[in-house]
Design a protein that fits this description.
370 residues; alpha/beta; eight-stranded mixed beta sheet; globular; Arb2_dom
Length: 370
């Protein structure tokens, strides 16, 4: 029988447990604690100690990648597409590398929205204080003043941010496939004002502060013997915890906490906030939405919360693979009737483009995306 390096690193624990089990009743508690420890050790996590450091470049150039004239991501030296399995048998490390590249691409797309599409980056909440967590949206110069037409784009859930439809498509296909840029440029060419929502930017992450627990002996009126016993137990508990952490998390990744952005703590909140503070204030007689995946659900929630206002301004809604559900979201009859007349959901299908696709729900027409 072969024993992996990960298994060998657990031998001291197994030996200790065997020795404890040979002891008397006083050792039962230690046995239980060790069994609990072993049950919580994840062998996949244990393999982290064989990983290279999780230290990745913060620029495309550092990754040795660039977008070519066709908008395809290619290796600077070899011209090859992105390779996920950069290191064999290190899936977690490869995933972290992919995520690091994805964050760079998010900033790259933001830059394109401003420089290539001439959109303005607008901080929200609009009345945020200097130290308050903030998000942002993008919009064209005439988004609020165009008297005729306004286009609003909402992406789906996950890691994507403003200007993206799918990170995977940006990395593996091209910018035109995975970003909203072709939609933005065409809309502007056809005389629309444009607002690009950012519904997944709901919080900022900061490192968790380290909590220093004051020793009971510093502040207790307990007898000295009892304080010493409690301190001893506390130290032993910390020692066991540190021992477990050594195996569970050798890379010692930082523990982070989330600070949510006021009135934008979810995609649904964000859609309502952008409606109230921007879209509802715009001069456009006709507002059009393009909403992908979870963006469709966020739009339906907006309708539920602002039904009369939405009906008065919105002319049509193009949904793409929307995951909304009028029953679960408790959309009323008048909303469902309006959606049947003013919305269309293009869904993944092998049928030719615009072929009708059967729907289980009585909301809006579903047709093939081709």
């Amino acid at each position: 029988m072969s024993i992996s390096l990960s298994s060998l690193s657990l031998l001291p624990l197994w030996i200790s447990m065997a020795q404890i089990q040979q002891g008397g009743p006083d050792e039962k508690e230690k046995t239980t604690a060790l069994k609990d420890l072993l049950s919580r050790i994840d062998l996949d996590e244990l393999m982290k100690k064989d990983e290279p450091p999780l230290d990745f470049p913060d620029t495309l150039e550092g990754f040795e990648y660039a977008f070519n004239e066709k908008g395809q991501l290619r290796h600077i030296k070899t011209g090859e597409p992105f390779v996920f399995n950069y290191r064999e048998d290190l899936h977690r490390w490869n995933q972290k590398r992919y995520e690091a590249l994805g964050e760079i691409i998010t900033k790259y797309v933001y830059d394109l929205l401003e420089k290539d599409c001439n959109l303005k980056k607008i901080a929200i909440p609009v009345d945020a204080t200097e130290n308050e967590p903030k998000s942002f949206i993008f919009m064209s110069e005439d988004a609020l003043t165009n008297p005729h037409k306004l286009m609003v784009l909402i992406h789906g859930s996950g890691v994507v941010r403003a200007g993206q439809w799918a990170r995977r498509l940006i990395i593996n296909e091209d910018l035109d496939s995975g970003t909203q840029i072709p939609f933005i440029k065409r809309a502007m060419d056809e005389g629309y004002g444009v607002i690009v929502m950012n519904p997944n930017e709901n919080y900022i992450e900061v490192e968790k502060p380290k909590i220093h627990i004051q020793s009971s002996s510093d502040s207790s009126d307990e007898p000295a013997e009892k304080r010493e016993r409690k301190d001893k137990i506390s130290k032993e508990t910390k020692k066991r915890h540190d021992f477990y952490e050594k195996y569970r998390n050798p890379q010692r990744e930082k523990e982070m906490m989330q600070l949510y952005i006021r009135e934008n703590g979810s995609p649904e909140e964000h859609a309502i906030y952008v409606w109230d503070h921007f879209i509802a204030q715009s001069a456009a007689e006709n507002v059009f939405f393009v909403a992908h995946s979870y963006g469709g659900l966020a739009f339906v929630e907006l309708m539920i919360q602002r039904e009369a206002d939405v009906k008065s301004k919105v002319t049509a809604v193009a949904l793409t693979d929307s995951v909304h559900n009028v029953w679960h979201q408790e959309a009323g009859k008048t909303i469902r009737e309006w959606m049947r007349e003013n919305c269309c959901n293009w869904v993944s299908s092998s049928e030719p483009l615009d072929t009708s696709v059967e729907s289980m729900l009585p909301d809006c027409p579903r047709v093939s995306a081709g």
